[in-house]
Amino acid sequence: MKHLSGKILIASASLAFISMLVVAGFSYKKNNQFANTGYWELHSSQVQLFILILVAAGIFGLGIVIGARWYRARANQMHASLRSEPIFLHDSTAKKKNDETLRMINDRANIIAKITNDSIWDWDLITNQVVRYHTSLETLFGYEPFAPEEVDSKWAQLVHPEDWQRIKEKRGAIFGNTTENYWADEYRFKRSDGKWGHVSDKGFIIRNEAGKAIRMVGASRNISEIKNTETILKEKNTELKDLSTYLQHIREEERTLIALEVHEELGQTVSALKIDLDWLQLKIMPAGEAVEKRIMHANKITEQLIVAIRKMAADLRPSILDHFGLNAALQWYCDEFEKLQELHCSFTSTIDDTHLPVDVKTAIYRIVQESLSNVAKHAQAHKTVVLLTEDGDKLCLAVTDDGIGFDALSKKGTFGLVGLRERAISMNGELSIESGKGEGTSVMAMIPRLG
């Protein structure tokens, strides 16, 4: 600021933006001597009028508009000596724009908070104050809204201790890692009635130029209903799994009983019939050609019936599985499958099946049985491989063929494939199927040794 006789000069580069209307209104001109310095000259005769206008506009910290820009004016004193006092004008256009932008952001945040179920929050990590928009999460759990400065301490009290420890460690690690700016977690939150609700929380971290976390903005959501629904579904799934296991167990018991009756009752009866036919053939020989053909035909049918009965009993429940173990049963079944279907079927096992539970042996046997049945019906394969290994405490089964394959996604819900998966799931295992047109099919199951 510089003083000349009878004049006040305002030293401010920002005044270079004063509109020509204001210049003309106060009849001041730019002093050529200071043309490139940013100093502007105002005649002393117009100072008081200018000051009055500034006062009316609010010079003490209030804004005035000159042209298209915003300024803030300040005078050191307001008395007669003002003619020799400097008047300061500060260009506040940028601040006004920032204030307006901030107001618009806050308005938008409030609108978003009103149309969403989330509780929007803004956490100042320097002052440890949390500002919420529209709805405070704690009000959804029966509390009065917390003050910004007490939110963090209240959270430490109301979040389940196990979850709070995890949250602090996770947030601390992210705050200290300048390459990570996103945090998300779920935790239990104590309601006003003492019960536990569930919260899903997410936040984006804002850092200063040095990379220090100074602010985090995010959203919290009450997911108690979702968690309760998940709990109910898990309980129902557990009940269905138990029911499926029980039904399979009952079915295997019935199959064992039927297989025993078929083998002992029907099998023995047909065997007795075969003995009588053989005796009759010996007693009446020689006989006429027609009689001999009839007896031979009856013998042949009886033999076929015996084979069919044995196969039926084996399909229902192979006695070899109970008496000789899983490896022997699978080897026998693969050999029979190869003979019947006239395609190569190899079986390899590296497990010790001595102490396997009956349910586990049965589940694996049935999975192989159903898989090979699908190969015979649909695969048009030339070769099938059955491999049984173990990985720690899990048994790994793979049934692979070189057939025409199929689109695994389109066949995902078929009853046969669903049945295979249910077999594995009933034993706390899992089963997957990989196939593609022209690429063959692989059925892979992993089942705990103890079921």
Structural write-up:
This protein is of the alpha+beta class. Helix content is 47%, strand content 24%. The protein is built from twelve helices and 16 strands. A five-stranded antiparallel sheet has the order 8-7-11-10-9, sandwiched between helices. α7 crosses α12, α10 runs parallel beside α11 and α11 runs antiparallel to α12 (415-426). It is elongated, with a radius of gyration of 45 Å. Mean pLDDT is 77; it is low at 1-48 and 57-90.
In short:
With 451 residues, the chain is α+β, with helices and mostly antiparallel strands. It has helices at 20-26, 47-57, 93-115, 137-140, 151-158, 161-176, 224-284, 289-316, 319-324, 326-341, 358-379, 415-426; strands spanning 3-4, 7-11, 39-43, 63-66, 69-75, 87-91, 119-124, 129-133, 182-190, 196-207, 213-222, 344-349, 383-391, 394-401, 430-435, 441-448.
* Largest sheet properties: 5 strands, antiparallel
Low-confidence runs: 1-48, 57-90
The average pLDDT value, as a whole number, equals: 77
- Helix count equals 12
